[in-house]
Amino acid sequence: MQWIFGDDPQTQAIVACCTRLKTSTLFEDKTSALNELENLAKEHPLEVGVKAMSTLCDEVLSKHFEEQLLVKKCIDILMLLLLPPEEPYDHNQLPRHPNTQRVYYEHNLELLLTPNTVSGDRMEVFIRLLKDEYAESIELQYNLVQILTMLLLCKHTMHKIRSELISIHGAINTLSELLNSPHEFIRNAAVILLTHLSCNDASIQKLIAFDGAFEKVLHIIDEELGIQGGMVVQDCLALMDNLLTHNESNQKYFVEIGCVQHL
């Protein structure tokens, strides 16, 4: 791990991939560079995050938004950088940044929202990818929901990601609309995302509620057979609890639109 800031072969390989992504005019070369970065990220997620985060977000996602293959590959790499590995794993054995001692995905999550001058632009790209234009890119949208959820779960990024999302026009509405997704695993993941997003934030709670969340969540509960439902229903109830507890405006709205009778 000493080579994070060094000049060893792995570092050179990461930097070379980033250079190709920035300078090459050939689609095939950019695709090849992303494939190489993906392989490197599987073994060295911390190092790839440190060296390649800005290139992935600001050179690929932002500048090649219309190239779905490049976008998908980029999001696949970000999944390796920003999420813990699949269980089972030993948390103590995960790579850590030598200065902060934070585990690799926590450090990379912070990098995603750094510096302030570009973090909003990056989140705006994420929100655009969750809209109708990419609605059929099911895996991509699911992965983006997972990344946003991790940002909300990480104590070092949870406040900043809320601030970024609330400042992006239509972002909360876009996330709320995912509750209408015809794909259950995206819809269910959106319930969890909105639960974490709305935690202890009255202004976000109001935005979610007035985007029709109560009606959408009650519809999901009906589809899951109500109180006979399992974990999905529990997640829905947790979201509704967040939206209603200590929020008089949402409580009044809940009654006005007839949700009490529905229960």
Give a nutshell description of this structure.
The chain is mostly helical and 263 residues long. The protein has helices at 9-23, 27-43, 45-61, 68-82, 104-112, 116-129, 138-153, 158-167, 171-177, 184-197, 202-210, 213-223, 231-244, 248-256, 259-262.
Structure keywords:
263 residues, mainly alpha, 15 helices, 69% helix, 0% strand
Structural class: mainly alpha
Secondary structure tally, helices? 15
Compressed to H and E, one letter per element, the order equals HHHHHHHHHHHHHHH
Quote the average pLDDT.
Answer: 92
Provide the β-strand percentage band.
under 5%
Q: How many beta-strand segments?
A: 0
Largest sheet: none
- Computed over alpha carbons, the radius of gyration is 20 Å
The residue fraction in helices comes out at 55-70%
Query: Poorly predicted ranges (pLDDT <50, ≥5 residues)?
Result: none
N- to C-terminal separation? 55 Å
- Shape category: elongated
